[in-house]
Predict the structure.
Amino acid sequence: MANKPSIPKGTRDFVPEQSSKRQFIFDTARSVFQSFGYQPIETPAMENLETLLGKYGDEGDRLIFKILNNGDYLSKVDDEKLRQKDSNALVKELSDRALRYDLTVPFARFVVQNQNELSFPFKRYQIQPVWRADRPQKGRYREFYQCDVDVIGSDSLLNETELLCIIDQVFSKLGLDDISIRINNRKILSGIAEASGLSAYFQQMTVAIDKLDKIGVDGVKEEMIRNGLPEAGVKKALNLINLTGDAEGVLNMLAGAMTGVEEAFRGIDEVRTVLKSLPESTREKVKIDLTLARGLNYYTGAIIEVGHSEFPSSICGGGRYDDLTGMFGLSDMSGIGISLGADRIYDLMEAKNLFPSNLDAGTQVMFVNFGQAEALKSFELASEVRASTMSAEVYPDSAKMKKQMKYANDKGISFVCMIGAEELASGTVAVKSMGTGEQENISMDALSNFLKEKLK
Amino acid sequence: MANKPSIPKGTRDFVPEQSSKRQFIFDTARSVFQSFGYQPIETPAMENLETLLGKYGDEGDRLIFKILNNGDYLSKVDDEKLRQKDSNALVKELSDRALRYDLTVPFARFVVQNQNELSFPFKRYQIQPVWRADRPQKGRYREFYQCDVDVIGSDSLLNETELLCIIDQVFSKLGLDDISIRINNRKILSGIAEASGLSAYFQQMTVAIDKLDKIGVDGVKEEMIRNGLPEAGVKKALNLINLTGDAEGVLNMLAGAMTGVEEAFRGIDEVRTVLKSLPESTREKVKIDLTLARGLNYYTGAIIEVGHSEFPSSICGGGRYDDLTGMFGLSDMSGIGISLGADRIYDLMEAKNLFPSNLDAGTQVMFVNFGQAEALKSFELASEVRASTMSAEVYPDSAKMKKQMKYANDKGISFVCMIGAEELASGTVAVKSMGTGEQENISMDALSNFLKEKLK
């Protein structure tokens, strides 16, 4: 095989430095989720194709990666259909399984399937990859991780409050204090549609508004009118969602414009209740943004999106849904969830240089290899160093000193220990700090304590 | 959708208890790997189909899950081929990508592709799922995790020693002190083949010997003779691999029978060197087993397998390879690696009741919800408890007491805090230990310290 090997477009390898940084994000998120009582679950990468089809719209159906059936997968396919080469029509005959497209639908399926083993309200987090056959581009991959937190089986607004606190804490712990959390409420949008005479077009309205960032107010207006929405209504709705100011101000103006529209008042009340219950340090980061629509039509209450002024894309989003599990036959399970975009958070943290510097340190201590007897002694001492909770390795080959030191340097090793024939005879170790270049001779017995002290 | 949802055969959901236990195994292994200087990498779930095909034999090729190309995947397929419905011949036309089948081939591909970014010897670990379209049965899944540790770019036997120490430490930390580690060496097997006049049949010989556990000595003998191996040679080889006793005894007997067979002596020397360099506590667990062959033909030196007397299957295995990356065009990269079977280790630990009891404890502290004002105060106190590094949650709804207590019980919560109207007025909390049933009244100010002390 002469070709240089490669991986599929839109997928990535992660070298140790990247993998350690990713692990740092996951571990940080996990520790916050757990401190609030959320528990981990995992679902299989493959779902039955019928579990996924029809849940993400036609475009989504196309972007799902399907798995070719094993064995003689063509034997049962109708000859006539094959002759017509209708790729779309044959998908279900060639493929029973597919790779999950997000964590939301598998979560709904999981809750229904395992309902007898779970305690409700069920608070879960899930950190796993998803796959989409999207056109790859900067920051958009065909395999990427989602990091979802949901509570299902409770319609209490305390869950909204809690998830906003979780968002605040995760990003603070990652060093991203300066995020802005935007919230809105589907009931307010529904009220705006009603007040503007657009109730019959609610779904088109939210889908169009969702594109505001990308196509601007004029673009949204055009799209709505092109889709047959009455122009006067469109203008009214766009004026309403453009109300800006502090939270209380926006809600008051809105209330003034919504006389008689009960649904809007329910939404306004929900937003007020959630804001009031937030700790002040979190409330300061939360803004009401009536233009926030999120096109997903399962949202029914709060909508949440998190952004950063120096980064174009949303780094976290979510909302309340009243009937997510209904698609699998279990109704009356209100819930709310958020999804953190691990890859975007990674890119943002990298751009702002926020990862702790010691994350990718391979090992704290390396022993140079001067030959078999010396290496065996080093191996013994390395075990002692490890027993004192440090990480240590012996360079496996008695290679040239320069090569061994380059390895230590590349791997970010803090201390290099040298046991040559002389040290072996005298029971000592020459210890060199890779940071300062200083070198000291230590008795072998004292080595672990010495290193432990230095590495504090 | 009326049908109860399901997942594909051979795949699994993991509820929180299972997921936490799995995480415990991974975290334990990870901490040992890192203490020896191994670093994490990740590779994509999907590889190019051509990267995987031909690496696992014909049977392996069939068991690889292929991904159906997206878009109009039939448009370029030859009409005549379609008409013949030759499923095998069409795989490469319908599918460019496949799910990884193990972590070894992706690792070799990774090393070649990223060689300029890595420091050699490169010590990596990788914990990721793999997929195989095997017939599902007890303990055998279509999606399962592998946990691989390799060092590549060094032929020093110190790596063998190190990996045996890693095996010992990982299993000790998991509570599995009573494992047995069996080792052998491909050079010894090659010497046995030579001494028995079977050199020309070496691959068939190792594949047959690999089945010894399943089909017995007679079965192995039959298979070799059926495959055309000369009977006298087969008998001689089987006598040699059946040598048993302590390590030094076996090696001495073997040496006596191998006069003039240099390859065998190279293998014997390697085994001796490795055994000598092991700490005694590890050496006690290591046995020489000349019947250990491992059918994979990329092994060239040490072979390792770990078992447990109460468990039929191997829970870890590996060996040295001299040319793993050769298949992707990079030669002269000797390495050695082991793979831990996370699912089997899980089953074994479950059977022996070895998981720490507090792993799936959802939360340490729960606040009962008595209504809005009480819940808001509870939410505030829960934040304080969390700030003192405990996990805490407020039950989101003011449901019946019985329901809330059942939730706390199901979730293994240690302390339940109750703030009703009275406590709210007096600034106190009623704290109940779920373990002892004891209940005390504490001032709100003292709550965090009180709980912290109790939870020590």
Q: What stands out?
A: The first helix of chain A runs from residue 16 to 35. Chain A has a mean pLDDT of 94.
